[in-house]
Amino acid sequence: MKKAYFITGTDTNVGKTLIASALLRAFVSRGFRAVGMKPVAAGCEETTGGLRCADVESLRAAGNVAAPPELVNPYALVLPVAPHIAAERAGVEIGIGTVLDAFRRLQAMSDVVVVEGVGGFMVPLNRREDTADMAQRLGVPVILVVGMRLGCLNHALLSAQVMKQRGLRLAGWVANQIEPGMPFLRENVAALEHGLQAPLLGEVPYQEGLSADEVAGLLRMALLD
Ligand SMILES: Nc1ncnc2c1ncn2[C@@H]1O[C@H](COP(=O)(O)OP(=O)(O)OP(=O)(O)O)[C@@H](O)[C@H]1O
Ligand SMILES: [Mg+2]
User: Fold this and answer.
1) What pLDDT digit, counting tens, does each position of 76-85 carry?
2) Atom of ligand 1 nearest to the CA of 38
3) Cα(94) to centroid of ligand 1, in Å?
4) What would the pLDDT profile of 152-163 be if each residue is shown by its tens digit?
5) H helices, E strands: number in the chain
6) pLDDT reported for residue 1
7) What is the pTM of this model?
8) Which fold has domain 3-224?
9) To test ligand 1's pocket by mutation, which of 6, 8, 11, 13 has the most ligand atoms within 8 angstroms of CB?
10) Which H helix or E strand runs over 100?
11) 104 near 113, Cβ under 8 Å?
């Protein structure tokens, strides 16, 4: 059976790429052909060899399917700003149809596709559509990465509410300690266990230089099946 997940987060910079890469490692070590996808990447670096997007490179390194770059990352944008603005400045309109097409082609060459969103869960992609629409059109379960810091309860619960409104399933969430020593961490995790009503796939401690393989070892993959 083909699997796919949409990895979103409570914000930008909360560990989506790290967790998506860890999921890919976990699937690879279980014998799956797993490929990462970053439909829209902003803040890509211009190099002599073309645009270089750090997230895309991390996902590529974590998977085990050699997929064409235009499928892994249909939209690579230079400006490190909200995607619809970066796209407008590049003279491009982000189209969910293009993303869907690339996703289906990746699915055809793999067993698991792990799709990393952009920013949080309701980020505009163009004048009409946002990342929640993208997840809805892909029609895959969502995994929410919660960056454990003050304010995350509101962000996490609002994100889950929008998923419910859009008919999307929250397959699980990850408590990622993006700051050292968050006060009342336990109590915050407990509040989300109560409020999100979805499996807690793992708790990742704050640790600089954590590898995707190390994080993979912390994920309770059995809860995803
Ligand atoms: N548990 C952790 N401990 C320490 N550092 C972490 C942890 N999780 C993530 N980081 C670091 O935080 C930064 C942001 O992580 P990451 O790039 O995975 O976030 P993201 O949500 O994918 O960001 P973006 O919105 O730019 O795609 C990275 O430098 C990463 O190494
Ligand atoms: Mg990322």
Assistant:
1) 999 999 999 9
2) 27
3) 25
4) 999 999 999 999
5) 9, 10
6) 80
7) 0.98
8) Rossmann fold (3.40.50)
9) 13
10) helix 96-108
11) no
Rounded Cα distance between 50 and 99, Å, is 20
pLDDT tens profile 97-125:
999 999 999 999 999 999 999 999 999 99
207 lines ligand 1 (CB under 6 A): yes
Q: Is 81 in the pocket of ligand 1 (CB under 6 A)?
A: no
Q: Which ligand approaches the C-alpha of residue 148 most closely?
A: 1
Q: What does the domain layout of the chain look like in residue ranges?
A: 3-224
How does the average pLDDT of the chain come out, rounded? Answer: 97
CA–CA distance, 52 with 73 (Å, rounded to integer) = 11
Please state, in angstroms and rounded to a whole number, the distance separating the CA atoms of residues 132 and 123: 8
Closest CA to 86 of 38, 40, 17: 40
Type of residue numbered 120: G
Q: What is the DSSP string of 77-94?
A: -SSSS-HHHHHHHTT---
Active-site residue 38, yes or no? yes
Give the burial class of 142: count Cβ atoms within 10 A of its Cβ; 0-12 exposed, 13-18 middle, 19 or more buried.
Answer: buried
Contact 11 CB / ligand 1 (< 6 Å)? no
Report CA(210)–ligand 1 centroid distance (Å).
Answer: 10
CA of 1 to the centre of ligand 1 (A): 30
Q: Indicate if ligand 1 lies below 6 Å from the C-beta of 21.
A: no
